[in-house]
Design goal:
Blueprint lengths: L5 E7 L14 H14 L3 E5 L12 H15 L7 E5 L3 H10 L3 E4 L8 H9 L2 E5 L17 H18 L7 E4 L8 H9 L12 E2 L5 H7 L8 H13 L4 E4 L2 H16 L14
Parallel strand pairs: 1-2, 1-8, 2-3, 3-4, 4-5, 5-6, 7-8
Helix pairs in contact: 1-2, 2-3, 3-4, 8-9
This protein binds 6-hydroxymethylpterin-diphosphate.
């Protein structure tokens, strides 16, 4: 059976995101970057105006809207099949984004930050991604403890799925994400990836976000976020093999190629990209 999956390209319109803060704060730069990611093969653009890196300070609604609003507005008519996802926990930001053309709400608090967000998603028929996080970004990496990280993440995601459905969100609109790096040690992240397939019984498509995260640097001994591409690829390949279906990454083109080869190998089918012009035997 062919494997189907989607690539979610990250567009951070922030001054302080951990790997690309400040690069796309200007809306024209963010739009140009987003269009590049689409060229590279992104199926979804995840646009965020607030960093959730460990220690990050919260951003006001006004500032977040001022960052993401013009970018979504500038992209909405350019994208065809590509979906815009708004990476926010705030009702007013999501409202604006959905009005301007976004169709996914990616909430790292899984509707705990603002429970009314669930009603908005229900009323608008948007898709949503509900993610696990232990604690909150400012303090989440201060000694996170689990008895069994996979079991606890799974129970949490099940509860948030039930909450969303209870608020009127159609179950088929919901994606779930174990929240790699959100209140987790290196060992917790690795265990979640190793046992990723245990989350499949939740019955919803799974999102995975390892891109450039610090545990990859801890494992390879490097210093800069930009030296984490190999680790990003390794973990995304593994997650595809273990059943993930949406891959949230900064570096779309190389991950696209790695996943295409992995999917062809696992699924036993392949299509040559650019066949006719570049296909070789
Ligand atoms: N990771 C980040 C932000 N949002 N959303 C989901 N669903 N899953 C993730 O793993 C995830 C996420 C952190 O990455 P990034 O956006 O690059 O950094 P920052 O939060 O510093 O802007």
């Amino acid at each position: 059976m062919p494997l189907t999956y989607r690539l979610m390209g990250v567009v951070n319109v922030t001054p302080d995101s951990f790997s690309d803060g400040g690069r796309f704060l200007d809306s024209d730069a963010a739009i140009a970057h987003a269009l590049e990611l689409v060229e590279e093969g992104a199926d979804i653009l995840d646009i965020g105006g607030e960093s959730t890196r460990p220690g990050a300070e919260p951003v006001s609604v006004e500032d977040e809207i001022a960052r993401v609003g013009p970018v979504i507005e500038g992209l909405a008519d350019e994208l065809g099949e590509v979906q815009i996802s708004i990476d926010t926990s705030k009702l007013a930001v999501a409202e604006l984004a959905l009005r301007e053309g976004a169709s996914i709400v990616n909430d790292v608090t899984a509707f705990r930050g603002d429970p009314l967000l669930a009603g908005l998603v229900a009323d608008t028929g948007a898709d949503c991604c509900l993610m696990h996080m232990l604690g909150e970004p400012r303090t989440m990496q201060q000694d996170p403890v689990y008895e069994d990280v996979v079991d606890e993440v799974k129970v949490f995601l099940e509860q948030r799925l039930r909450f969303a459905v209870g608020e009127g969100v159609a179950e088929e609109k919901i994606f779930l994400d174990p929240g790699i790096g959100f209140g987790k040690t290196v060992a917790h992240n690795l265990e979640l990836l190793r046992r990723f397939d245990e989350l499949l019984s939740l019955g919803r498509p799974l999102v995975v976000g390892t891109s450039r995260k610090s545990f990859l640097g801890r494992l390879t001994g490097e210093r800069s976020e930009h030296e984490r591409l190999a680790g990003t690829i390794a973990t995304n390949v593994l997650a595809l093999e273990r059943g993930a279906s949406v891959f949230r990454v900064h570096d779309v083109a190389p991950v696209r190629d790695a996943l295409a080869v992995t999917a062809a190998t696992l699924g036993g089918r392949w299509t040559a990209r650019g066949a006719g012009t570049t296909a070789r035997t």
